[in-house]
Fold:
Amino acid sequence: MAFLEVDDIHTYYGNIEALKGVSLKVEEGEIVTLIGSNGAGKSTTLRSISGLTPIRTGAIRFEGQDISKTAPQKIVALGISQSPEGRKCFQRMTVRENLDLGAYLRSDKPGIAEDMDRIFDLFPRLKEREKQKAGTMSGGEQQMLAIGRALMSKPRLLLLDEPSMGIAPILVDRIYETVVEINKQGMTILLVEQNANYALGVSNRGYVLETGAVALSDASENLRTNPDVQKAYLGT
Structure:
C-alpha cells in the first residue's frame, strides 16, 4: 500500500477534461515530482489531491483511506497540506498572522509554538520580518511564507506547487535547500515544478505529464538523462 495513491483520476473544469486518467504513487519519505509544460495538468493534480478541484471518476487514497470525496479542510486534518501556485499569502496580514492561520485546525499550543520556532529556523528571513505585512515582501520571501504556512498544519504529506515561479535564482536555491532539509527531517513531498532541472535534482522519482495524462515515469536520474526529457524540458 502506497502512502499516497492516485488511481486513474479524471478531473474537469466545466465540460473540459483537465486530467484524463492520471495515476501515480508516492511512498512515505520520498520527494516525487511532476514535470510538464503549462497546461499539462500538474497543478490540477495537486488540487484534486487536496480536494480543491474534486475528481469526477477514479480514486485518491492516503494511507489506504479513500479521500476522493473528502472536503479540503478534512484532508488538511488528515495530514495533507498544500503550498499553492502563486503563493496566495494573505497580503494585509503579518508574517506571524499568516503562519498562525496555517495552524488554524490545531489546538496543541506548545506544539504550535515549537513549529513556529522550527519555521523561523528553516527560514530566518521570516523571523526578521515577523511583524511585516506579507504584501510588502518579495516574491521569494512570500514563497518561504507559503511553505511555512503549509508546514504549520503539521502535515505528513506536503504538496508544493511551482515554488520557483517568479523568484530570483538565489532565493530559489535557498528554497530548494530547505525542501531537501525538511524531507530529511521526515516530510514526504509531492512537488510540481516547471523548472525540471531543480525538480529532478532533488526528487527520487518523477512523472512527466502531457495534456492531462502521464506520458512517462521513472527514477529522477533516469529522467534527467532521457533524451526526450532533455529536449522537451531541460533545454539540452
The first strand starts at residue 4 and ends at 13.
